[in-house]
Specification:
Layout lengths: L1 E2 L3 H15 L5 E5 L5 H6 L6 E5 L5 H8 L7 E5 L3 E3 L3 H6 L7 E10 L5 H9 L9 E3 L1 H6 L14 E5 H7 L16 H11 L3 E12 L5 H26 L3 H22 L7 H28 L6
Parallel strand pairs: 1-2, 2-3, 6-9
Antiparallel strand pairs: 4-8, 5-9, 6-8, 7-9
Helix pairs in contact: 8-9, 9-10, 9-11, 10-11
Length: 308
């Protein structure tokens, strides 16, 4: 679990984790702020929580800093703004009974859907992927003429991965993800690598966590911009790193067409999606190429690895 300047949600998340797990856990908590003192105070009375400090900002660097401290055959990834539900861990781990499964994503349901802005985020697509089990493999990755929609697989706010997969594929891509100029995209890129390496990813809808969506408009708009920017950055990174150019057509043609249709629907009264949210998404898409380039440049300037 990575955290940055969110002591109250962090405490809530950890308390739910220990209450619901029913077993001893090794918990590695990576503080991604400038000073880890607050985080250390928050967890001082929680047994078995190891705090690692990674001041270089970004979810991917934070996770990469924490992974070497873990010893299990399976590494579980959760965010600091989710609440674990009873039985979650058993459900999340059960698909690993199939030796072909290298990674599992769980269901992420909204914890605060009584508020308007979390409802808007669910209209956008949310983080959950519905009530039905799915599996994804290399054939699925290769089948589409356009980019394989790895964003449909789930989110690493609730996921587990075999250590063998992590050892074979290397760290999370630090050019992508929250805390970097690119916005998000580190999980969809990792899903891409898992499938490309021949592993299967299972989506397990019964492994449920509750996510506290952004509760005010300004936070929601920042998140939506980051999602849109990260979506573009993901496609550019897949093209640059893996030579898979299928996403470039989506960035250059299909996304502009999509937003043109949405704005037309708003103009003619056929769409009730909030105009300010849609405009923010468009701004994020337009900013995507520059944000992706700045993310990579920042890694080079800091002497951190830049994936070829």
């Amino acid at each position: 679990m990575a955290t940055r300047d969110r002591p109250e949600p962090l405490r809530r998340s950890l308390e739910a984790l220990f209450a619901a797990s029913g077993r001893p856990l090794q918990v590695v908590l990576v503080d991604n702020s400038a000073d880890a003192a607050t985080t250390r105070r928050v967890v001082a009375d929680l047994p078995g929580v190891e705090v690692v400090h990674e001041p270089w900002p970004g979810l991917s660097p934070a996770r990469n800093a924490g992974l070497p401290h873990l010893t299990g055959d399976v590494v579980v990834l959760v965010d600091d703004d989710v609440v674990i539900t009873p039985g979650w861990l058993e459900e999340l781990l059960s698909p690993f009974g199939d030796a072909a499964v290298g990674m599992v994503t769980g269901n992420v349901l909204p914890a605060n859907l009584d508020l308007l802005d979390p409802q808007v985020f669910e209209d956008y697509g949310g983080l959950g992927r519905g009530p039905h089990r799915h599996t994804y493999d290399r054939a699925w990755l290769d089948a589409s003429r356009g980019p394989a929609p790895t964003w449909e697989i789930g989110a690493t706010a609730n996921a587990a991965v075999r250590r063998d997969v992590l050892a074979g594929l290397g760290p999370f891509d630090e050019a992508l993800g929250p805390g970097r100029p690119s916005g998000v995209g580190e999980d969809t890129e990792y899903f891409y690598r898992v499938l490309r390496a021949g592993w299967t990813i299972a989506y397990q809808p019964t492994a449920v966590v509750l996510h506290h969506h952004r509760a005010d408009r300004a936070e929601l708009l920042r998140q939506m911009r980051a999602y849109s920017t990260g979506h573009v950055a993901y496609h550019l990174q897949v093209a640059a790193r893996h030579g898979d150019l299928r996403g470039l057509g989506r960035v250059a043609v299909r996304l502009p067409q999509h937003y043109a249709r949405r704005f037309a629907g708003l103009t003619w009264g056929n769409d009730d999606y909030p105009r300010d949210v849609l405009a923010t998404e468009v701004a994020g898409v337009l900013a995507g190429p520059g944000a992706w380039w700045r993310s990579r440049r920042a890694l080079r300037e800091a002497g951190r690895p830049v994936p070829d």
